[in-house]
Amino acid sequence: MAGPPGAEAAFELKGRMATLSVLQLKSPDVRHILAQLDDRLSESPGFFTGMPLILAPAGDLELTTDFLAELVPALRERGLCPVALADTDPALADPLGLGVMRNPGASRPAKERAASASAPARSLPSGGPSKLVTQPIRSGQQVYARGGDLVVAAPVSAGAELMADGHIHVYGTLRGRALAGVQGDRNARIFCSELKAELIAIAGEYLLSEHMDAGLRGGPVVAWLEGDALQLAAI
Questions:
Q1: In angstroms, what CA-CA distances link 165 with 38, 154, 168, 190, 202?
Q2: Under a CB-based contact definition with an 8 Å cutoff, are residues 24 and 40 in contact?
Q3: Where in the chain is the domain with CATH 2.160.20.70?
Q4: For the segment 75-104, what is each residue's pLDDT rounded down to a tens digit?
Q5: Which of 49, 53, 119, 140 suits 73 as a labelling partner, its CA being 20 to 30 A distant?
Q6: What CATH architecture applies to the domain 21-101?
Q7: SS3 call for 30
Q8: Nearest to 230 by CA among 213, 217, 25
Q9: Phi, psi (degrees; rounded to nearest 5) at 226
Q10: In the chain, which residues fall in CATH 3.30.70.260?
């Protein structure tokens, strides 16, 4: 039933760029998955709490009702938040209260992934717009440079998030998260004057602070993607 004429709108739908992590499932053994996941969670207690996840089968793995009925509650018990399955029959997702996401990059068929791996890395159009930020970026803030580079001439606080389709430049202390090449540009790089980030990522490949070279922490650093591994070097 429509509200009275002139009544204030009760809601508004808006689009928003959000970070979703993909849990790529490579084993049909739930206990094996959980054992390795527990090891990863123990490395960064609390870091993944509440993280929304898309569950995506890798290779020829097929998701089944029994597999998901065991895995999804176990993920929730660990503080993770599975929200959707990738390219899956909705009949598998509905009983678990999950949605279905179509074609997230991590869940493409093996043949398609092989074709894209042999293709040249995608680059942004030359002259793409850059976004310049001159104010400090505080905890809880997210800044996204769509279609170009992000340049931050100010410090970035822990709990903040930087995202760019192209490169990220931080002329100050980089804490929080920095995700470059979020639309798949594997040539993207991250530059910062002082590396203290919780996480950096390029084209979906990420590196946690615990796995960064301690000798590079606190100094000027460039990050780039080499194969499927992030590389760091002093600048």
A1: 32, 20, 9, 11, 10
A2: no
A3: 129-234
A4: 999 999 998 888 778 888 888 888 887 643
A5: 140
A6: 2-Layer Sandwich (3.30)
A7: helix
A8: 213
A9: -125, 105
A10: 21-101
> Which residue type is seen at 134?
T
CA angle 194, 196, 197 (to 5 degrees): 120
Answer yes or no: pTM beyond 0.70.
no
Output the CATH code of domain 129-234. 2.160.20.70
Kindly report the CA angle at 59 between 69 and 105, in degrees rounded to 5? 90
Residues with Cβ within 8 Å of residue 96, at least 6 apart in sequence: 68, 69, 72, 82
The model's pLDDT over 20-60, given as tens digits with 9 standing for 90+, comes to 677 888 899 999 999 999 988 887 777 678 888 888 888 78
